[in-house]
């Protein structure tokens, strides 16, 4: 299985090239982005981050002290703006009140306690917590998202219904615990899911892992699919 997973990775990397994730200048910006991109495309989150930067609020204490209405207005491009403004404040409250405003104090913890603390913050679920751990704290956890499940279901690895923890354990059991690999692998899956392995009409004819894909041979919606 390790060879298979690495072969998938290598095909994706050769096709899409390095993805340079996460698109952020600081670990705090990674975290703000991870919260703002929940349930929305990255474009909206990026615009919201640009608004926060312009206002000079892209820092834990500034966000915590920001007037709620004004903050919600700035993050409106990321949708669910009131809820997300509150989530940003909830996270920043932990940094300010428990870590003296120093994000590094939070992020330097070992993976297990860090993950537990992140998951205890309202609005931070497994995908967001793991994105923070991998891309902001730079510790080796594999991030699972809807694309990961869809792609590996179509490849014949995951069932139609699969739990987050089981999928994550699968990757972490079979791959070396390597931050750079996990970083790039998740980014490559995002590229495949976003551009080719689409929900309704996957573009299998252009897919670099077509020859590995069980679904491609049988998917009735994709008549041009076949094994290479
Ligand atoms: S061959 Fe098609 S269904 Fe299979 S992973 Fe590629 S795009 Fe998705």
TrEMBL record:
Keyword Metal-binding found: yes
InterPro entries: DNA_glycosylase, HhH-GPD_domain, HhH_base_excis_C
Alphabetical list of Gene3D superfamilies matching this protein: Helix-hairpin-Helix base-excision DNA repair enzymes (C-terminal), Hypothetical protein, domain 2
UniProt entry keywords in alphabetical sequence: 4Fe-4S, Iron, Iron-sulfur, Metal-binding
Protein's organism: Thermodesulfitimonas autotrophica
SMART domains (UniProt xref): ENDO3c (SM00478)
GO terms for MF: 4 iron, 4 sulfur cluster binding; catalytic activity; metal ion binding
Record-level GO BP terms: base-excision repair
Record's protein name: DNA-3-methyladenine glycosylase III
Domain HhH-GPD: 36-195
TM stretches of this protein: none
Metal-binding recorded as keyword: yes
